[in-house]
Amino acid sequence: MNMDRKWIALVALVALLLVSACKKPDPVVTPPPPPMTETAPTTDVKPDTTPAGPVDATPKPVEKSLQELQQEAERSGLLGDVFYDFDKSDLRADARERLEKNARFMSENPEIVFTVEGHCDERGTNEYNLALGQSRSATSVDYLISLGVERSRFKTISYGEERPFCTESNEACWQKNRRARFVVTGRR
Amino acid sequence: MKNSLLPAVAATMLLLVGAWPAMAQNSATPPELGAGVDSTLTIDGGVRAQIRVAFPAAEIDSSLSGEYLEAAREVEQTLRDDLEQTIVFNTQGPTELAVLSLTGDRTQDFEQFRSLGNEVVLLASIKPEGDKLVLDGWVYDLPSKQSILGKRFRGTLAQTRLIAHYLADAMHYQFTGRPGLMLTTIAFQSSRDGHQELYLMDYDGRNQRRISGHKSTSGYSDWSPAGDAIAYMSYFDGSPGIYYVELATGKKLPIYNEGVLNLSPSFSPDGRSIAFAHSNQSNVDVYRCDRNCTQPVRLTKSGAIDTNPSWSPNGKQLAFTSSRSGRPNVYVMSLDGADVRRISFEGNYNDGASWKPDGTHIAYASRDSGNKFRIAVTSLVDLTTKILTNGPDSYEEPSYSPDGLRLLFTLRRGKESQVYVMNAADGSDWRQLTHQGNSSAADWSSFKQK
Q1: What's the complex ipTM?
Q2: Do A135 and B284 touch (CB under 8 A)?
Q3: Which residues form the domain of B403?
Q4: Going by fewer Cβ within 10 Å, which terminus of chain A is more open, N or C?
């Protein structure tokens, strides 16, 4: 009985995850959907203490774990953003190097999926920069695919110059804003 | 927000009844206009001879008080502002006419108006009628003392500016054979309410109102040629998609939101098709489709960024921005993507094409070596380019008025941006239209359907 309930809960949770996975993410708020590992069958042996009913499987710690995963990977240099020249979307040597490391991390963590955001500095027109940001995320993703990473693991989105990382008007700041940002958005 | 005001006021408005039977029917041939009037009909060619109008104080009914009196004064002021903002008229108001000793006798007073160089006089009166105001306007040719035009408009207190616009527009039509800008509307985007949303304003910057509530990033709108709808881009569904808002109902419908990026919609002049920039994961290209957008056709295949299309007034070409030469530049192509021709050669970065309504010129933003944008206009006849702005700020996103005489643009100073308007011919006569939040990417409507 208890086991049945647990399965119902599990199925409900999976359904919930599928539904939320199908929805396109809101560009403003970006907490990723709770990953499925939370319901990993390793807990099967333990007695189920969660009461039946609505599955509010506390997504907070899960989100954090994705974020933490991202932060750790970034801290240790396994994952990082890719930077571009002024007005350009083609990959510099340092960008290729960065992407090669990213590709390694991706193949070592094959369950992780990403959103690749394209960003621009403030100097172009806003409208063209929306296209340029897309082109930047696309060149990064294309290179990763050429390195053997599956395309289905990426979603690209351009923010143009709308969401700067740095708001001063100097080259140091502009360089920070010309990037493809890799955001871990879930596990598949 | 709905645009329901217009039909409502049109219904309550009466063309002048009785009093001036000669007017209205034949606006094409106004009787006995003074000499010199003819030259004003070629405004576009740079000939600037204006019609000199004496416009003494309007006769405001003495029974009006409180908000009605205020409204009556606003009608008069709006009328003066309207006439002043066209380059068709050169108006002398009460201040300039104060040197005269008017007698109240028309024959004498008309001579006096004429002595100051005026060719016509506009006499306006405003009186109450129930809860409405009635604006009567009549124009006399001073040499002949013949009436040229007489119109009556009535409206509620909420329509005071509108009835003045209608009279000014009627005058404009009478003297030039085409409508003025008074009844046109400008769409733009602003962050004044926290998110970047769509807004509308009257042609003079008044009556600014929000028409979207996506609480996301929305903008880069394009008016439908009929003026009844706007196509725009919004991120509200996650990635940028193209939507359509019907102004009468406020109803919003998706046009195209497949792939990861859809941008910069531009209606064809017949309103049946839309060009836009689209990406399905990879590079950005220009596409076009019909209004339902079931089968978009890809038009550019350069491998570079191709974006920001703008449909030509004759419907046969598209201007767009491409980085195929290394830097963004403005190009023109046919509807099947062939016959690509680069038209911008100024500066190091050109984007944001707006066609002059007669199809002879394209305005765009051109970046100079100091990384500031200026408004450039290129003739499609000989590819000569004129720079219209020469200030310390950045000037972007030009959009022609439907008569081709004015240009909207965005002035950027640091992180701030506001919408301005200037003369399209020489970049003179700047007016700031927006003041709140950051506002940009304005698009001018067509003339209202009459």
Answers
A1: 0.85
A2: yes
A3: 185-444
A4: N
